[in-house]
Design brief:
Elements: H1 3-7, E1 10-20, E2 23-33, E3 36-40, H2 48-63, E4 73-75, E5 78-80, H3 86-94, E6 101-105, H4 110-123, E7 128-132, H5 139-148, E8 155-156, H6 162-171, E9 176-178, H7 180-183, E10 199-203, H8 210-220, E11 224-227, H9 233-244, E12 270-271, E13 274-276, H10 291-305
The protein binds magnesium ion.
Length: 309
C-alpha cells in the first residue's frame, strides 16, 4: 500500500445515539488520496481476509476518479434497530426527515418483531416497510412469518443459505433481497443466485468498491438496491456515489444510517427523504481515537494490505 496513503491515516470513534448491531461506538479509519477521502471500517470482529475488500474500496475512493453519476441526490430508507420502546421508535423514525420507507431489523423474536412492525405502522401508517433478517430464519420460520406480517416491500436475507432461499422463494410471493449471500461469500462471483433472490443488495465497502460492485451487478444480472454498513459520512457518501452511478435505481437506499450517530465527521443531512452527494471534508475535532487504538487500526491496515494485489 502506498506510504503516503498510510501517512494520511486518521482513526475516529463515533458515538451512536442508539445501540445498533450491539455497537455503541463506531470506529472507522479514513485515508486521504488524490481524489479525496476513503473509508476503511470493517467491524472489529472481522478478520483480515474479510476486511480486504473494504480496504480495496477505501483505496479506490482515495485514488480513483469518481464514476459518471445519473443523479445528485439519493432517496434513502430509515433503518430501525431491533427495539420496541415506543418513544425510542418515535425518536428514531423522526430522525429520518421525509423518509417514506423503513427497513426494520427482525429475526430474533417473532412476537417482538411483529409488535415492532405494528408500532411502526401506527406511528407512520403510510410507510413502506421492508424487513432485514440477517439470515436468522429457517425456511419454515420464514414462511410462517411472511404469511403473517402483512404487506411489506421485500424481505432481506430471510435465511442464511442459497438453498434455503431457493426453497423459500418457491413457497412465498414476497420479494427476496440477497445481502450476506453475496457479501459473505468467499468469491461473490462464484455463487449461483438463480431462483434464490429477486434483488441484489450492494454495499460498496464489503464488496470491494464501486467498480467491483458494478461488475457483480452485471455478473448476477439482477436489479440492485444499495445500502451501507454503518459508515461515517465519508463512507456513506461513497455509497451514495455508488447508488447514483446506476442508471436504474428503483429503491430507496439504506444510506440513512448517519441518523443513528450522535457525532460524525461531516453532516450529510436527509432532506425530504433524500441525501445530496457531497465533497466530504472530514472534521476530526474531538473524534480521534487513543494512541493504542490508532496503532491497532494501522496494524490492521498493514496486514490487510498484504492480502491485496
Ligand atoms: Mg442486510
Amino acid at each position: 500500500m502506498d506510504q503516503t496513503l498510510l501517512a494520511s491515516l486518521r482513526v475516529v470513534a463515533l458515538p451512536m445515539k442508539t445501540k445498533f448491531r450491539g455497537i455503541q461506538t463506531r470506529e472507522v479509519a479514513l485515508i486521504q488520496g488524490e481524489f479525496g477521502w476513503g473509508e476503511f471500517s470493517p467491524f472489529l470482529e472481522y478478520d483480515d481476509a474479510e476486511s480486504a475488500p473494504w480496504l480495496a474500496s477505501a483505496i479506490e475512493a482515495a485514488t480513483q476518479p469518481k464514476p459518471e453519476l445519473y443523479r445528485a441526490e439519493v432517496s434513502v430508507n430509515g433503518t430501525i434497530p431491533a427495539l420496541n420502546d415506543v418513544q425510542d421508535l418515535e425518536r428514531i423514525i423522526n430522525s429520518f426527515p421525509g423518509v417514506k420507507t423503513f427497513k426494520v431489523k427482525v429475526g430474533s423474536d417473532v412476537s417482538q418483531d411483529l409488535q415492532r412492525l405494528d408500532l411502526i405502522r401506527s406511528i407512520r401508517p403510510d410507510a413502506v416497510i421492508r424487513i432485514d433478517v440477517n439470515g436468522l430464519w429457517s425456511v419454515d420460520e420464514a414462511e410462517i412469518f411472511l404469511n403473517s406480517v402483512g404487506e411489506i416491500e421485500y424481505v432481506e436475507q430471510p435465511c442464511a443459505t442459497i438453498e434455503e432461499l431457493r426453497e423459500l422463494k418457491k413457497r412465498v410471493d414476497v420479494k427476496i433481497v440477497g445481502d450476506e449471500v453475496l457479501r459473505k461469500a468467499k468469491d461473490p462471483f462464484n455463487v449461483d443466485l438463480s431462483g434464490a433472490i429477486n434483488f441484489l443488495m450492494l454495499k460498496v465497502h464489503p464488496l470491494g468498491g464501486i467498480k467491483r460492485a458494478h461488475k457483480l451487478a452485471e455478473h448476477h444480472n439482477l436489479p440492485v438496491v444499495v445500502s451501507s454498513a454503518l459508515e461515517s459520512a465519508v463512507g456513506i457518501n461513497y455509497g451514495l456515489i455508488l447508488a447514483a452511478s446506476f442508471q436504474d435505481m428503483n429503491f430507496d437506499c439504506g444510506l440513512g444510517t448517519g441518523s443513528l450517530m450522535a457525532k460524525n465527521v461531516a453532516d450529510l443531512p436527509i432532506v425530504d427523504g433524500k441525501i445530496t452527494i457531497a465533497d466530504v471534508v472530514p472534521n476530526f475535532d474531538g473524534l480521534d481515537v487513543s494512541a493504542d487504538r490508532y496503532e491497532w487500526w494501522k496494524n490492521r491496515i498493514m496486514r490487510t494490505s498484504e492480502l491485496l494485489n
